[in-house]
Amino acid sequence: MTKMTMISMTRGSLLCTLAALASGGAAAQATDVALKSQLDQALRTIQELQKRVTALEQQKTAPATVVPAPAPAQTAAAEEPLPAQVVAPDSAAEKGAPGADKAKLEISGKVMLDSIYDFKRMNPQWNSTERPSQIPVNCPGLPGANDPGCGKDGETVFSVRQTSLAFKSTIPTSVGEIKTEESFDLFGVGGGNTQIRLLNAWGELGKWGVGQYYTLFMNVDIFPNTIDYWGPSGMVFVRNPQLRYTAFDNAGMKLAFSLEAPNAAIDTGKVSAIDPNLLGLVGKTYFPDFVAKFSMDQDWGQFQVAALLREVGYESSLTASGSPSGTKTGWGLNANGQFKIGAQDRIMGQIVYGHAIASYMNDGGVDLAPNSAFKAETVPSYGGMIYFDHYWSEQLASSIGVSMHHQDNTGGQLPNAFRQGTYLSTNILWYPAKNVMTGVEFIYGKLEQFDRATADDPRLQFSAQFKY
Prior knowledge:
mainly beta, 44% strand
């Protein structure tokens, strides 16, 4: 049955309905007004049907329109929103600066777990690393005189304090490239607590550098491949706020100078028992520390020599005038380097000597202490380290070495004053995949005091690290 036949039948049915209505209306003697209303409604229905017939006929004769299906990639893009953009607007190159395509912002870091079994004990504030100066010696001592960490031998420590985050940027400008670095870890002190700690906050432009960075008096490149956080006790290691100028940098040779934040580690020793005012002696610094360093980097390895000149002061915090007070001159020399063996192996070494340089040493000692006449005197320090990093294969490596920091004590220091800290370690490290490291390390520390009392601390450390 065609659509036209259906329309014709519908039209016939309506006419029959109209006739029936007319006949029924006469029979029922309906009023003229009611009949007219029914006829008008029937005519409107016919007109609507005619419009629908015309539209159906036009649709039948019109050519079919094919709507193309959207491409699969377009469909996926429409269904999945784009990821959020990471924007660093201030890291863009200056307009017209040479090398504008070198602008970049780098984000890096690591997640690290240290699992330690300590065969003896360590000061609880520092038990997640090996620091010889923090090994308890006087156990048991007089009431209230026990060293922190005294107790029964044996302790397990878990720590994530070596977890770190760093941001580096390179920004081309019309006067040269700005280079910046900000880095943090979780190695704040405080028992098992983890606290964010600023490591470096550094910026360079041309020959100038400002901010907090590794002191110019040290060489961070010779730090061995260990998993213990603190590392060799006889190594120069401190991050210092500073202003640095590189006078010469060519053909692997560099000459640089820095003015650095001063610090004074004061030991009041026996004089505090003579004059209670001396209990309030604190370090006071008038001038910044001055450092000069020459370094040479060649295919065979590296050599550096650095000199330090500083003024170390003190004053009383218990008197209005600050008396007693005074200053002493400190100085130091540091020679260090590394020698390459094959493609990856290396030997690293350092020798350092000076007066009032304990503030720059990695662990232990003081800058000023009283002599036998109870006058302030700079305390001599000398330190050294030698380490060997070896790669058994692309996935297996080891490091072994020893380090020591020694001080020649003055006559006015107490018997428990730091005299020498010894540190040695060896490990086996496995790199099963890119950015993954795990390993075990044996670490041994020993503290010797002025009165020759000693204590040691052997420990095993297992660590797992994931870099990004």
